[in-house]
Amino acid sequence: MVFTLFLLLFLLLKTNCSTFQDCESECIFEPVKLISTNIGSFPKCAKVCSFLKIDHSSNLTHEQLTEAFKNLETLVGGLEIVNATFTDVKFLNSLTRIEANTSPVRISNNEKMIELGMVNLTTVITYNFAVSGNKEMTVLNLPKLQIVDCQLSPCKPVISMWNNNQNFCMTTEEMKVFLLNNRIEQFYVNSKVCEPAGDNMKTCKMPEVGCEELVGNLEIGPNFDTKTVNSLKIIYGSLLVRNSTLDDLSCLGNLTHIAQFGGNGTKANSPLLDYKLLVPVVKIQKDMKSIKMANLKRIVTSVWNAVNIRDENDWELENGNETCAANQYALFQKTPQNAPRSFDGLSC
Ligand SMILES: *[C@@H]1O[C@H](CO)[C@@H](O)[C@H](O)[C@H]1NC(C)=O
Ligand SMILES: *[C@@H]1O[C@H](CO)[C@@H](O)[C@H](O)[C@H]1NC(C)=O
Ligand SMILES: *[C@@H]1O[C@H](CO)[C@@H](O)[C@H](O)[C@H]1NC(C)=O
Ligand SMILES: *[C@@H]1O[C@H](CO)[C@@H](O)[C@H](O)[C@H]1NC(C)=O
Ligand SMILES: *[C@@H]1O[C@H](CO)[C@@H](O)[C@H](O)[C@H]1NC(C)=O
Ligand SMILES: *[C@@H]1O[C@H](CO)[C@@H](O)[C@H](O)[C@H]1NC(C)=O
Ligand SMILES: *[C@@H]1O[C@H](CO)[C@@H](O)[C@H](O)[C@H]1NC(C)=O
Q: Could you tell me the residue range of the domain that residue 52 belongs to?
């Protein structure tokens, strides 16, 4: 009873301040949707409080929006751009920070949108960051993005980058914003990794001495030159070990992350998927003495059955005997951070 009262009081206070305590009254924009008849009253402040929503019926041009948002640096509230006809979101060019504590930041189902292009955006505070269903979108173009996180504790932001153009890719810099944040556990992401840009010696497409980030699968087969992976830290792709004569994976002692979002249209985390149809994120032949990787922290993926240590035939034989945890600990020397919830078809 007392607890309920407190809860009510808490909710009341929370909605009263309605996130908008952060803004001067002239910097608050109340309407639920931005439309041609109210855009004139959009505040000219650097920091605006608003649950900003723009859609098909907003009847606004890119020019009108550019003018309305030209001073906007911080948006407190939320942002939804759905079912609109713009080719990008460059009208929010000056925006550096979105604080949407209790709301999603969603840019979805915009038929003609080819990129976001919010080139000054560094920070997105939200529990759900979704860029999905934009059929023409091939890149995010968020070159300064550093932080996607939520502030209310406990919180675990959900990332959805689903159903955009089939060539949609994220840069390694954009990927790292998500995969180096351990609070992000749920990825509904179907994305390639963009071709590494020009002259960055630390990023490579084939294993090379000195390379730290590999864009592509790492296949370790017979006669593999282990020196080429000694400094490798991140694989944006799968780790596949087949027909190798190595006893262990100590050559991957610097590897911390394996990230693979190359699902191919199949729904993330769907228990209905036949695991054999998907390229696993990790697949390792079974006869090695040890498959531990000394610094491995995370395997990040939206493929349901991420890790496949045994080969398929063995899986069928040994399925009943293995435990998921045993397979996890076979790979990780350190306590895994948000390891995949499925190993060899077993749920952890
Ligand atoms: C759209 O906005 C223009 C002015 O920008 C106005 O003339 C027109 O009537 C509006 N259309 C609708 C359907 O509201
Ligand atoms: C999206 O826009 C189309 C017109 O382009 C409209 O027919 C449809 O109802 C809109 N959908 C939503 C969910 O608003
Ligand atoms: C946003 O970025 C562009 C290009 O990097 C730059 O020219 C512009 O000054 C920036 N705007 C603000 C308000 O920071
Ligand atoms: C592994 O070896 C088997 C038989 O020795 C061979 O059939 C297969 O093609 C090899 N696979 C790879 C990836 O080297
Ligand atoms: C990790 O990288 C450092 C610096 O590149 C190197 O000295 C070290 O030998 C590497 N560790 C392994 C296990 O290869
Ligand atoms: C996508 O997955 C299906 C199985 O669901 C598979 O048959 C197909 O080859 C895959 N396509 C690509 C491009 O990987
Ligand atoms: C499978 O588990 C049973 C006990 O549940 C055990 O007796 C047997 O040795 C196990 N087989 C393998 C291959 O580990």
A: 19-165
